Amino acid sequence: MTKTTRIAIGSVFVGLAVLAIKTLAWAMTGSVALLSDALESIVNVATALAALFAVQVAQRPPDANHPFGHHKAEFFSAVLEGVLIVLAALFILREAWDGFRTPVPLTAPWQGLGVNILASVLNGLWAFVLLRRGRRLRSPALQADGAHLWTDVASSVGVTIGVAAAVLTGWLWLDPALAALVAVNILWSGWRVISASLSGLMDEAVPESELAELRAIIAAHAEGAVEAHDLRTRQAGRASFVEFHLVVPGEMSVNDAHAICDRIEAAVRAARDGVTVTIHVEPEHKAKHSGIVVL
Hints:
Blueprint: H1 3-29, H2 32-58, H3 73-101, H4 109-137, H5 140-169, H6 174-201, H7 208-221, E1 227-236, E2 239-248, H8 254-271, E3 275-283, E4 292-293
Parallel strand pairs: 2-3
Antiparallel strand pairs: 1-2, 1-4
Organism: Litorisediminicola beolgyonensis
Subcellular location: Membrane
Domain Cation efflux protein cytoplasmic: 207-284
């Protein structure tokens, strides 16, 4: 079992634990705002399950139907997470509207808030783990899950403060108003998750800083070649693809040209895990006198 899979499984159990704690907090108080917090935790569990499935699919090796691998499965999971987040927000808005029309006094509010704070601390710790490990393992699914949990933590803090204010002031309308604010925050979170995932599905290039690093590596390890041009990159989760044209002297043998390509590929792979390098060798009359100059 890989590290990514273990973390994804951990997300499911943490999500279930947080859901149980937040549901208890809502049952103790009857707060619409705390209900909205609990409903978001249901989405957390669903997205954790989706992330686990996507991570397992993404780790499958290339096959005849998917010669470039299954890495983009994680992006589909992230899009699904975004859609579920939006649906949860709409459901919370409906509950908030009902709370506005028929406000309900809160019962045992301080005990319920204490329980809810416990769930928020657990969520915050796990969100930190997901974001840190997700970046290290270059997993869009884990990063999307972590980003969503951070949003959940922020919502929970706001709900806790607001419910406390509602109890102290006696303004019952504060409870559904906070639930509505939580819903708006969740909607924004869902949109960010979806937009980030769509960038990956559209074969977005690696960041400019990584492109600069690639150019430097090619220039430093292409000794014997004339130039490199038409550098293109794309990324799919933990995998990335690099391709370019390498111009060599017309009289150079195939063996010598292949040796240069091997040297460049080895250097690129040493600098970036999970990269596939494709090099098209051309004779010197194909030079564009632009692109990467060989050092």
